[in-house]
Amino acid sequence: MGSLRRVADIGSTLREARMRNGIDITEVEARTKIRAKYLRAIENEEWDLLPGPVYIKSFLRTYGDYLGLDSRALIDDFKRRYERPSDNEMRPIAALGRERERAARGPLLPPWALIGLVLLALVAALYIVGRGNSPSSTPAPPTGARATGPHKARPAAPAHTQQAAPPTTVKLQLRATGQVYICLVDGGGKKLIPGTIYAPGQAIPTYTAPKLLVTLGNASVRMRANGRLVRVPASANAIRYLVGPTSERQIPLSATPTCP
After folding, report:
1. What are the two backbone dihedrals, phi and then psi, of residue 236, each rounded to the nearest 5 degrees?
2. How many CB atoms lie within 10 A of CB 183?
3. Burial level of 168, CB count in 10 A (0-12/13-18/19+)?
4. Which long-range contacts (CB under 8 A, 24 or more apart) does 83-89 make?
5. What is the mean pLDDT of residues 163-169?
6. Whole-angstrom distance, CA of residue 58 vs CA of residue 51
7. Is the pLDDT confidence value at 19 over 90?
8. What is the largest CA-CA distance in the chain?
9. Lower CB count within 10 Å: N or C terminus of the chain?
């Protein structure tokens, strides 16, 4: 793709988002199917190490969507800086001159040939219309008669459209990226994790319920609800979330039920 000047916006945006969510390169590679060397090249803005502009834009869309970023803005930023004008915008002036000369010379066929083509098309159209109006060799069955034999009409099979029902429960997965206090309560007030401090690498139980209320002592945690990544804002203070099957929201620490 040639030598490209470095821009500190695209790669640093992706790297900071990945590190903020506590995700390493190997996990991104497994989830996005993009080789780790290409992910590092994108974060370091080493565009010459990537296969080409088409792959770069595809990688930016996949990587940005996985991190929950505006992938379209990343692609537009790349296009604005690195893509050259299209071939239509760079046609030589001589080529445009030749096109104007061909238009001035007019059509290559003489007038009598054009008239002949029109007549042939008219004859063909009349022939097709005449065949369409000719009586069919197979008589139609009389009104009210039951069709039998090979011409019996088959009833159309009813169309069945099935839509996937929305989930009614949420499965919450937590992974500590630093030392963090966790309290987890279900919708009925039952304490599932009654205020426990976890260290990085320590297994945290996974629970499923119609809704869950989770309290975090800080932002040192990676959280997924039904597989979707929940973005935890950077904070040194306690945070509380109400998590449902399809959405989640941050709520005040005074919301009940609470943990001891």
Report:
1. -95, 0
2. 21
3. exposed
4. 83/53
5. 88
6. 11
7. yes
8. 98
9. C
Other C-beta atoms closer than 10 Å to the C-beta of 231 total: 14
91 neighbors 39 (Cβ within 8 angstroms): no
Task: Give the strand order in the sheet containing 170-176.
Answer: 207-209, 170-176, 221-225, 228-230
Strand partners, 171: 208
Burial of 119: CB neighbours in 10 Å, binned 0-12, 13-18, 19+ = exposed
Is 144's pLDDT higher than 60? no
Give CA torsion, residues 120, 125, 128, 133, to 10 deg.
Answer: -140
What pTM was estimated for this model as a whole? 0.38
Question: Of 184, 163, 188, 170, whose CA–CA distance to 247 is shortest?
Answer: 170
What is the rounded distance in angstroms from the CA atom of residue 76 to the CA atom of residue 70? 10
104 or 56, higher pLDDT: 56
Map residue 117 onto helix, strand or coil: helix
Read off the pLDDT of each residue in 93-107 and give the average, rounded to a whole number.
Answer: 52
Fold of 10-82: 434 Repressor (Amino-terminal Domain) (1.10.260)
pLDDT at 65: 95
How many angstroms separate the Cα of 237 from the Cα of each of 185, 212, 231, 233, 258?
19, 20, 16, 10, 16
Amino acid at position 96, single letter: L
Mapped onto helix, strand or coil, the DSSP state of residue 152 is coil
Instruction: Give the position of tokens 């010459």.
Output: 48
Mean pLDDT of 107-131: 78
Please give the Cα distance from 43 to 64 (Å, whole number): 11
- Whether 60 shows a pLDDT value over 90: the answer reads yes
| Size of the chain, expressed as the number of residues it contains | 260
